[in-house]
Specification:
5-stranded antiparallel sheet; 4-stranded antiparallel sheet; single chain; alpha+beta; 39% helix; 330 residues
Length: 330
């Protein structure tokens, strides 16, 4: 793909990872500090099951309501904060190697889901058993095989539930191919023509697929992804703003500043200055996802990046995931 070659990725302090291939632990163990003063960048694949209480988790600058039976799917590279959580949760963490040889499509797992009925009973039972077995059988080939199979069953159950709620459309495959390519190449190029050439289709085809799945053009999807990564790095790292801009492919800090302000509604400096503000009161708005939330209504849009620095005023959202790096811990 023809593009500029950005500087090396900013160093990011990631959430501390548990050395096991599969691990379970409490929500509080994810915090970069006891008060969750800033979002932290997640390093591993996570499922977070709320077990007691009510509150909000802030995932990629979007408030997600949590109560018993709420399940969150958090991907590496996303930023997470649960400041002063009034709820308890069990976290399941795993590395990609844990699912080798299993046909599990992680892209189909919902970002947010309120479990109910038989689904809730089954998922709670499987998470609980996985937590027990992680403690009882911490090592050995048989134990690792048991945990891998349990995790695969849990994820397959969630994927099946999602498939029943969100039947595939003809444009979905094109969009998901485009989304995967954007995840790989957004620091190098923001040109729709480059992605169309890489995928062997026309710009019109990409735009039509993006409009069908997200309600946004292909160019908007790319720019929102870049803006999201910029917001993650501004909020969760102390990297110089100019360095972040260079890594994202901007040759001049002023170009990065104009781009971010246009996409988010505030300057990079103002956004960073507001990162320690509490998230309470920010608005949750529906969105067409790049990854489905699995909510019964279908889909949620993350609160805009601008809400973090703008007191809840609308700006533009962006899809999840991004490269790991070096401020909170998980």
């Amino acid at each position: 793909m023809v593009s500029t070659d950005p500087s090396p990725a900013p160093s990011i302090k990631t959430m501390s990872s548990v050395p096991d291939e599969i691990a379970t632990f409490a929500l509080a163990d994810l915090a970069g500090d006891p008060g969750w003063r800033r979002p932290v960048i997640v390093e591993r694949e996570l499922l977070i099951l709320t077990t007691r209480g009510h509150g909000d988790a802030e995932l990629d600058f979007h408030l997600l309501p949590c109560r018993p039976g709420t399940l969150l799917r958090v991907r590496p590279g996303q930023v997470l904060r649960c400041a002063g959580p009034q709820f308890d949760a069990t976290v399941v963490a795993w590395d990609p190697a844990a699912l080798r040889d299993f046909d599990v499509d992680l892209a189909t797992t919902a970002t947010w889901r309120q479990l109910a009925g038989e689904d809730e009973d089954a998922v709670i039972s499987e998470v609980s058993q996985l937590a027990v077995d992680c403690q009882r059988h911490p090592d050995g080939p048989t134990a690792r095989a048991l945990l891998r199979h349990q995790l695969a069953v849990l994820l397959l159950r969630l994927a099946l539930a999602h498939a029943e709620q969100s039947p595939a459309r003809p444009e979905d495959e094109t969009f998901h191919r485009f989304h995967r390519e954007v995840e790989h190449s957004y620091p190098q190029t923001r040109r729709v023509e480059d992605y169309a050439a890489e995928l062997g289709c026309s710009v019109r085809t990409l735009t039509r697929a993006c409009l069908a799945v997200t309600g946004r053009s292909a160019k908007q999807v790319i720019d929102e992804r870049v803006a999201l990564q910029a917001g993650r790095l501004l909020a969760a790292t102390d990297q110089p703003i100019a360095h972040i801009g260079r890594w994202l492919g901007f040759s001049e800090p002023t170009n990065f500043g104009r781009f971010f302000t246009r996409e988010v509604g505030v300057s990079p400096g103002a956004f960073r200055a507001a990162r320690d503000q509490p998230a309470a009161g920010r608005v949750v708005r529906p969105r067409p996802p790049t990854e489905s939330t699995g909510a019964s209504s279908g889909r949620f849009r993350p609160g805009t990046l601008g809400e973090l620095a703008n007191g809840g005023h609308p700006g533009r959202p962006g899809p999840p995931a991004g490269p790991p790096g070096d401020p909170g811990r998980a």
